[in-house]
Amino acid sequence: MLVALQFIAVLLLTAPWMRSADSARYLALAKNLSAGFFSPDGTTPEAVWAPGYPAILAALHYGAGLHLAVVVFLQLALVGAAIALAARTLDRTARLFFLMLCAGYPMIALYSSAVMSEAVATAGLTTLAIWLLRQPSVGHLIAAGATCGLLTMVRPDLALLPFLIAAYLVLTRRWKEAVLPILAAAAVLTPYAVWNAVTFGKPSPLPVASAVGSSLYLATWQGKLPPSDLNALYQQEATPMAEASGLAREVRSVNESVGAPPLHPPWNPFLYPSALQSDVNSRLLALAVSRIQNDPLSYAKHVVRNLWALWNTSSYPPQVPAPIAWILAVSSAIIFVLALGGAWLTRRTFLPYVTFYLAGVHLLLHTEARYTAPSRILLLMLAAVALERVLRLPYFSRLQGPFALRSGLDAFR
After folding, report:
1. Could you tell me the sign of the dihedral formed by the alpha carbons of 90, 144, 102, 381, in that order?
2. 42, 161, 292, 312 — which has fewest CB within 10 A?
3. 216 and 200, same structural domain?
4. CB contact at 8 A, 325 and 308
């Protein structure tokens, strides 16, 4: 009930549910996809974003005619179903701690209360994969692989998850079954690969235009300039610090080389015309590699900092009162530390590896805590297991008397 009330409050408080330019982009892709063409403007095919989430919006918003409020409500309902599914993998005591953490941890609802892909990837798919892998029979491994294929259609950064599952199977000496999740994921991704082959001449199961270059380039500047100076480029403005640091000069040089406006924001490739996206990404990638070679220590600090920053939001919107922001920051830190302990306790299962997979993918790229949103439910599962184990220590056990706790690891053994 507390989780449901939290979701309803977040739904009302975050209206109109358009978190950023990404939301508008998703809607544009969905609108054109409902007309039969996967394109942001109705003329040029989309090369940067995967079609999974736009297809969902096309079906719900443009096909069924559901208001965006209803779409977001369904997303939150899906997250609630994922929480219920995750709870079923824990024993009674750890399940109680897990639900308590979900009720007091609003980040899952906040990430899912916008026109963004995080809710679908978080709720229906990542948690479903873990539930299937809890008892990895042949049928479950095939279903988990197909789920990972769907995940990749929503979030391409999850493309390596079937290989992670296969590696785990190899390490646990289930050699013959290791290929099953890979083949199942490949089967799901084949239609999109065929579309890319027909449209772009590249049979890729992922978007043909990568965003790695722009993301890595931004990573080389984070930590050197505050977010306000970096974000100013979204309005094509160069702050005095951006000029003095050389950022503005580099951006002008890249944009001049591709024929874009001098201060066109380089942080997202989709902000450029489709014809320029691949070229811009390649130039930014080369520039980022050069910057890392010239200052490897600074970049190494960024990667180490990401171990924490990808899970703990560094700054909250100004409309969030300072005491609330402080409580959110402290609770997130405690949950993250507990989850590290839970990861050690469940190290013989799939759970910790899937949970921290996304952070591992993004450690080398720019910092944005929402990238780990698909794993937040799993993070709370790990924290609940650790909390249950802490409260089973001798000192706490004496306090419990007849209410001795059972092991939260029983379901994973």
Report:
1. positive
2. 42
3. no
4. no
- In total, the chain counts a number of residues equal to 413
Question: Residue 225's beta-bridge partner residues?
Answer: 222
SS3 for 319? coil
Q: Cβ distance 156 to 50 under 8 Å?
A: yes
pLDDT averaged over 10-residue windows placed end to end, the chain, 413 residues: 88 84 89 91 87 94 93 91 90 89 85 83 80 87 93 91 91 88 96 94 89 91 89 89 92 90 86 82 92 93 93 78 86 93 91 90 89 90 92 60 48 47
DSSP state of 225: B
DSSP conformation class of 91: -
Phi (first) and psi of residue 145, to 5 degrees: -65, -45
Angle formed by the axes of helices 92-104 and 2-13, nearest 10°: 20
Of 248, 269, 294, the domain-final residue: 294
Helices (H) and strands (E) in the chain, counts: 21, 0
Distances from the Cα of 388 to the Cα of 90, 396, 408, angstroms = 11, 11, 6
- Tokens 């989850």 found at: 339
> Does the N-terminal peptide bond of residue 240 adopt cis geometry, omega within 30 degrees of 0?
no
Which segments of 346-408 does DSSP mark as H helices, in order? 351-362, 376-390, 394-400
Range of the domain at 387: 2-207+307-412
Which two tokens mark 11?
């739904």
Is the distance from CB of 143 to CB of 132 less than 8 angstroms? yes
Same domain, 150 and 261: no
- What three-state secondary structure class fits 45? coil
Q: What would the two tokens of residue 280 be?
A: 């811009």
- Can you give the pLDDT at residue 325? 83
